[in-house]
Structures are given as structure tokens and as C-alpha cells.
């Protein structure tokens, strides 16, 4: 047993049966002057220092002035990729748009070409090294998508890399099949053929092999239509894969309501958001996920988080880490951006990046809050006046110590 005493503020405490939504997000559930007891890899007990009962422990850590919170839960990443796309970065600086670069054969197809040429081993090594960096920045659970393969073999290679990450890293990792990320060159004149290949070959094969937990599609003008979304999500759901969907990044074309009709776990991006989209989300079991790093990097509008929260809905925030639209997986920066650009309060942003992120990738049973029996995956900050200082110092992080599965790392 390890005992942490005199914690200035212990954040995201309590039990959570559902994501935190609407006005409830304003209220950070936390304990001042707290203790936290860890038994092996789990949270055993916590409370105020006054309520602490004497107990025999192996180690006592004094956390006077420090804040303790759950590690970040990053529910949307494309961590597995072959190479960065710095050239496109420069092309955008020189005036081209994301869509113009994609139309020239750049973008997702560029990443797919490089990934197909790369062997499993270096692909795994690159992804593992990125994941190590993210964990050091406080990410304690992560979702990772395929989507740079765009063929049965290459999507399989990506999912195998994710499977290896799952077995070699001791944090919760979820895999999402995003074969419907772009139409590959081989099917340029036969998109129906590619949709059929995903629905009839990839989904059954990868679901049977338990290579993926979720199904995704990039529903967007120039990528996949709402009709194609229905086909792919229905096939996924029939094979036990709950949808987590890319929608409304550049255009609102009805993808939100369509995703909700398949009981999507999350709808991600939402830089464009209509009143109909909000209505579709109300009363659903679908979580809105904002990706402010993508808006920042591409210079596109930010997700209207206030409208989402004021409509009484839950919201999660995630990094979208990928080589094209968000080449950073730093959740500390994402939390700052949620405050600065999405006008979320520090309480809202921290809840969106922990417990709500955990719900948005179905790991909330295990992590995302300070709850008895959950994994002891924790961030200890240096001495801070209050948790509001965590997002305040943007571009930095407030991590003095990480505790992963009950171990100081
Ligand atoms: O979430 N929008 C679709 N997919 C990614 C970007 C993919 C890429 O450009 O490589 C995203 O932004
Ligand atoms: Fe994405």
C-alpha cells in the first residue's frame, strides 16, 4: 500500500455512471486537503485528511501544496503513421488549404502510400516511441485509429501495430477501424467497390480477429457520404463494433444525426454544428468530442463547445494526433486550448479530458476519475495555488510525478 497525504486538491473524485454533461461540468468534483491510498495498481481509498484512519502502509508520500488528478484520457488519435507531412505544412503556410493539398494527392492518400511501403517493425517502433512521449506528457489511456492503410492488408498491418501496443503498454488502449478514411487510388473510379470491400471483407475479418473495438468513417464532402456512413456503420454494428465517427469537420452534411441513429459512442470534430445536429445529440447516448489541436493547426473554426454544453450535452476533448491536421498529442495543450479557444472553464476542460474522454472510448470502468477500484493512473502536479493553474500555463505541463498502475514512474 502507498499513501499520499496532504494533497492540496484531489480532482475528479466520486463515481460516474454517465459522462458529465451540461451545467454539471462547471462543478469540479474535488476534495481539498485529501489523502489517497493505493493498493497495488488500484485506488483503494481517498478522502479528507480529517477522515483518514490509521492504516499500515509501505510508503507515505507527502503532497503538500500539490494537486493530484487522473491521467489524461485521449479518446481520438491516429498515432500509427509512417512519416510526418512537413512539406504539406509548408504548403499550407504558403497558402494552400488542407482540401487543396488532398486534391493534389497529398493528405490521407500521401500517408497511405508511405504506410503501405513501410514494414511492420519500423512502423511499430515509431508508434511505440510516440506513445512513450505521450505517456510522459500525462496520457494514461488512448484510442488509436487505423485509416492510413486503405486496403485489407495495410489496414491489417496498422491494426496489428495497435494490437502490439496493447500488449506491450500497460495503459488502456482501444483500436478503431477507419478504413473509410479516404477512397484509395485503386478504387478511384469504383467507390462502391471500396465500400463493399470495407463492409463485406474488412469489418467481418477484423471484428472476428478482435483487431478493433470501434468503427469509424470520415463523413465529409469529398470523402464519404451520409449514405456510405449508414452502410459502413450498420456493417460495423452488426459485427459488434460501436461507431466513433469523424463528422462536421468542414461541412455539416447530416452525419451527426446519421451517426446517432447507429447509437454512436462519439461524434468527433464538430467544427461545424447546426441546431439539427444539437437536437440529434439531445437524448442520445452519443458524446460530442472536440479536437481543438486540429482547429489550431489548420486554422479552421473551433468546435462551439459552449453551445454543446449549454444544450445540456456531455463533451470530451482529445488530441486527434495525426500527421496531417494535428501533429501533437500533448493533452496538456489540448486542455489549455479548450479553455482559451473553446471558452470552457478549467473545470469543464479537465473533466472533458479525463472522465468524459474515458467514456468516449469505453474505458470509464477502468480509469478517468478518482474512484475506488479504478486504476491508479495519476498525475501529481508541482505545488500550485489551484487546479485553474493547470491549463493557465499553456504550452507547458504541470506534471511533477506520474503514477501508472500504482507505480511511480
Ligand atoms: O481527424 N479528418 C480526417 N482525419 C484526420 C486527418 C487525417 C490526415 O490529414 O492525415 C483528422 O483530422
Ligand atoms: Fe481524426
Task: Give a verbal description of the structure.
By secondary structure, the chain is of the alpha/beta class. 35% of the residues lie in helices and 22% in strands. It is built from 15 helices and 16 strands. It has helices spanning 86-93, 98-103, 107-117, 120-136, 152-168, 191-208, 226-238, 255-261, 275-281, 292-298, 305-310, 331-340, 346-353, 355-359, 389-392; strands at residues 2-11, 30-39, 42-48, 59-62, 66-70, 72-74, 139-145, 173-180, 214-219, 242-247, 266-269, 287-290, 315-317, 378-383, 401-404, 407-408. Strands 1, 2, 3, 4, 5, 14, 15 and 16 form an eight-stranded mixed sheet that branches. A hairpin with a 2-residue loop joins strand 15 (401-404) and strand 16 (407-408). Bound molecules: N-(iminomethyl)-L-glutamic acid and fe (iii) ion (FE). Residues 107-108, 111, 218, 246, 249, 294, 320, 322-325 line the site of N-(iminomethyl)-L-glutamic acid.
List the helices and strands and how they pair.
Layout: E1 2-11, E2 30-39, E3 42-48, E4 59-62, E5 66-70, E6 72-74, H1 86-93, H2 98-103, H3 107-117, H4 120-136, E7 139-145, H5 152-168, E8 173-180, H6 191-208, E9 214-219, H7 226-238, E10 242-247, H8 255-261, E11 266-269, H9 275-281, E12 287-290, H10 292-298, H11 305-310, E13 315-317, H12 331-340, H13 346-353, H14 355-359, E14 378-383, H15 389-392, E15 401-404, E16 407-408
Parallel strand pairs: 1-4, 1-5, 6-7, 7-8, 8-9, 9-10, 10-11, 11-12, 12-13
Antiparallel strand pairs: 1-2, 2-3, 5-14, 14-15, 15-16
Helix pairs in contact: 4-5, 5-6, 6-7, 8-9, 12-13
The protein binds N-(iminomethyl)-L-glutamic acid and fe (iii) ion.
N-(iminomethyl)-L-glutamic acid (NIG) binds near residues 111 and 218.
